[in-house]
Amino acid sequence: MTAPGRVGESPNRVGGIGRVTGAQQYLADLRVDALHAKLVTLDVARARIRGVDASAALALPGVRLVMTAADLPQPVPRFGPQREDRPVLATGETTYHGEPVALVVADTKDLAERAAALVRVDHEPLPAVFTLEGALAPDAPLVQDPATRPGDPLAHTNVLKEHRVGWGDVDAEAAHAHVTVEGTWTFPMVTQFAIEPHAFMAAPDGDGIAVWSTIQHPNWLQRVIAGMLRMPLSKVRVYAPDPGGGFGGKQHAKYEPAVAFAALRLGRPVRLVLTLEETFQAVRRAACETRVRAGLAQDGRILFLDIAADYLIGAYTDIADRVVGKGSYPAAGPYNVAAVRILARSVLSHTVPSTAFRGFGNPQVNWAVESALDEGARALGMDPLALRLRNLARRGDRFIPFDTPCDGDWADVVRVAAERAGWGTPLPDGHGRGIAFGIKSGPTTGLSYSIVRLLADGSVVVYAGTSDMGQGARTVLAQVAAHELGVPLDWVTVVMGDTAIVPYDQQTSASRSTVLMGNAVLDACRKVQAQLAAMAARLHGVDEAGVSVDAGVVRLPDGRELTPLEVLKPGLGRLGGELTGVGESRKDAEPDHPLGGAPAFFEFNCTVIEAHVDEETGDITIDRHVTASDVGKALNPLQVRMQDEGAAIMGLGHTLMEQYLFDDTGRIRNLGAIDYRIPTSMDLPISLESEAVEHEDGPGPYGAKGMSEGALLCVAPAVAAAVQQATGATIRALPLSPERVWHALQARRADAR
Question: From edge to edge, which strands make up the β-sheet containing 302-314?
Fold first, then answer.
């Protein structure tokens, strides 16, 4: 039996046909006799709620419910992955533009929308802060009531938390610096813009409840709903159909609690599907302002980095403070630096709560630090690649002294990228070339279980709690099972997305699935192999210790080789049956570690950009975009390349065009696809090239590491460096929109006069 689709090959994607033909059933497509819900919001950033009049809406035939905070248990339940500070519905006041005041439920979607428009909310607009400057002002209105932060010395400010990391003596090293670069770099507020908007559904389920959600962490959602409804976990069933994109924005609960309360109250299924505009008001990435002081020796050594980053996280914590802490932790980059001081602050504001986003807080600070290194290289008259290589950590270096050592041959990745991009070769007139390195800490904790069943005919079923949101987890996990058990890929079925069927998985994030869930599937397969070995020994009357099973081949002590099916059929006999393995992959917490655990691996990337600028319009053209990543082992090379290229293009979004725009009261003015620009085929690089560097040195199956975030980390500084070389204009604010670039060019010309 041949086994196409084994590890290291690039077979057709599992479930890919359904995705490209439209046959895949997303949550909004499920045929369920459900009532339809619609949010009631205010067109204001912050307002005191004086009263809600739902009489006109309730007078419409077919309107079943208008639920406000007053209809919920009192005090209104709150939830959140880090702090339980977010109410199910706004209570007392709204704290950001788009926060729901009520939930309308009706027989049809159109009727729900019509009824929601008839709900009258008596409200008083209140002063709001929606910029870092405004939120940090001494007289700024507080976003959260200090009473909700007992014992917190920062409770009477809008700073939720401060994160400090460092080593060495920055001030002592500063005295020896030949060049010191200082500056402030700003990163915009952007949204994940998944193709499938957020959707939620809930229904009574016997003496429990069933919840459907476009969620990355179904087991986490199960805990939230169980706690809020005071039900045992066994009575809360979460269905998580493969979402159409997530990028971190679908990690944690948003409106599932409200829909669950409505469904239980009505005794009927209730479904809420957000519009794209409403999704913009549900999730986004934290904006950031980063101040960097960098000191360099004459030979290019980085003597110190002093970094202060303020992240604008929004009205509620969600997972944002973890983003700030973990994202800023490796802010000094993949370099050996004698002294580092990092201060990162989570700053509350009357804006949409920020969430996880591909890169998890790293692109914000990487943009600033890599740009500062470029300015330092120019001041030294040194090649920016040479400066970086002078300081780049080598395998085993503890570049963060109290953390996981450098776990890859990162210089090899750089060599591949630089050679592919033609670094050092002449450029056409008006063109520039920039380079940047990026690093991200992998998962710091993890727990994944998997069940693998080898059926009587040799086919395989894999149960895994990972969410496949487009990253190809189904395919990779199927490949591991096909490789280990010697079956064709299309003989493997991967079951996901139902907490009543699949075993526990902590979460789908931090590029962990291939490593942690992959190891759990591998462990389960190895346990099935052990049973096959025992069965073969019994059938052939040989010592079990002399039987081995590897990559779908059963080897007997006398040298004979059998397929698993040749053992399985006679071994199971006429009664049939199956062999079952339960696999586990665990990375325990480390309470004394600043992040709660050392990274399982690092994602490292080198990006090289060649670009030119139309100096009359400020428009940037990316002529060549080369991205190279340390992946350990590419279990599916095509998927690895596609993930890296997708991340690279996403990085071009916040680099060149994406940003939330606010009016002077804090309302978002560019909701939706028409007014909010993302890269299209017209904005892609003329040449986009990706390389996966493999040394089989990762902690995952066959030496794999997590990937797909790295290629996004350092796009912005590489593009800005290319623009600077092409035009002489140094720009410290993103996005590098034509308008911003044009103004920088005018300023450069004025300075030259």
Answer: 159-167, 339-348, 302-314, 287-296, 179-187
Do residues 215 and 71 share a domain?
yes
Supply the range of the domain harboring residue 618.
287-443+593-752
Q: Does 225 share its domain with 373? A: no
pLDDT at position 2: 42
Residue 545 and residue 410 share a domain: no
Cβ proximity of 168 and 339 under 8 Å: yes
Q: What is the DSSP string of 256-274?
A: HHHHHHHHHHHTS-EEEE-
Do residues 278 and 197 lie in contact, with contact meaning Cβ atoms separated by under 8 Å?
Answer: yes
Measured between alpha carbons, how far is 98 from 283 in angstroms, rounded to an integer?
11
Tens of pLDDT, residue by residue over 697-715, are 999 999 999 998 999 999 9
Domain-embedded: residue 551: yes
**Which pLDDT tens digit goes with each residue over 123-171?**
999 999 999 999 999 999 999 999 999 999 999 999 999 999 999 999 9
Report the domain count for the chain.
Answer: 3
629 in a structural domain: yes
Q: How many CA atoms lie within 13 Å of 613's alpha carbon, on the beta-carbon side?
A: 28
Q: Does any domain span residue 165?
A: no
CATH number at 263 reads 3.90.1170.50
Q: Which of 529, 564, 587 is the last residue of a domain?
A: 587
Residue 82 CB coordination number (10 Å): 18
Render pLDDT for 366-419 as a digit per residue (tens, 0 to 9).
999 999 999 999 999 999 999 999 999 999 999 999 999 999 999 999 999 999
Give the chain's radius of gyration (CA, Å). 27
Please report the pLDDT score of residue 5 as a whole number: 78
pLDDT the model gives residue 753: 76
Q: What percent of the chain has pLDDT over 90?
A: 97
- Residues 456, 426, single domain; the answer is no
Q: How far is the C-alpha of 317 from the C-alpha of 257, rounded, in Å?
A: 17
Report how many helices (DSSP H) and strands (DSSP E) the chain contains, helices first: 19, 28
The CA angle 428-433-439, to the nearest 5 degrees, is 160
**Residue 592 phi/psi, 5° resolution?**
-85, -5
Nearest CA to 522 out of 702, 740, 647 is that of 702
Last residue of a domain, one of 541, 558, 587: 587
In angstroms, the CA 178 to CA 373 distance is: 14
CA distances from 98 to 87, 102, 283, 612, 675 (A): 14, 11, 11, 39, 17
Considering the domain architecture, whether residues 294 and 370 belong to the same structural domain is answered as: yes
Phi-psi region of 9 (alpha: psi -120 to 50; beta: other; left: phi over 0): beta
Q: What is the CATH number of the domain that holds 541?
A: 3.30.365.10
Query: Are 468 and 437 found together in one domain?
Result: no
Spatial distance between the Cα atoms of 42 and 633, rounded to a whole number of angstroms? 50
Give the HSE-up count for residue 628: Cα atoms under 13 Å, Cβ half-sphere: 22
* Structure tokens that stand for 632 in this block: 């350990």
514 φ/ψ angles, rounded to the nearest 5 degrees: -60, -35
Please tell me whether residues 554 and 627 are part of one structural domain: no
Same domain, 341 and 378: yes
51 inside domain: yes
Burial class (CB in 10 A: 0-12, 13-18, 19+), 230: exposed
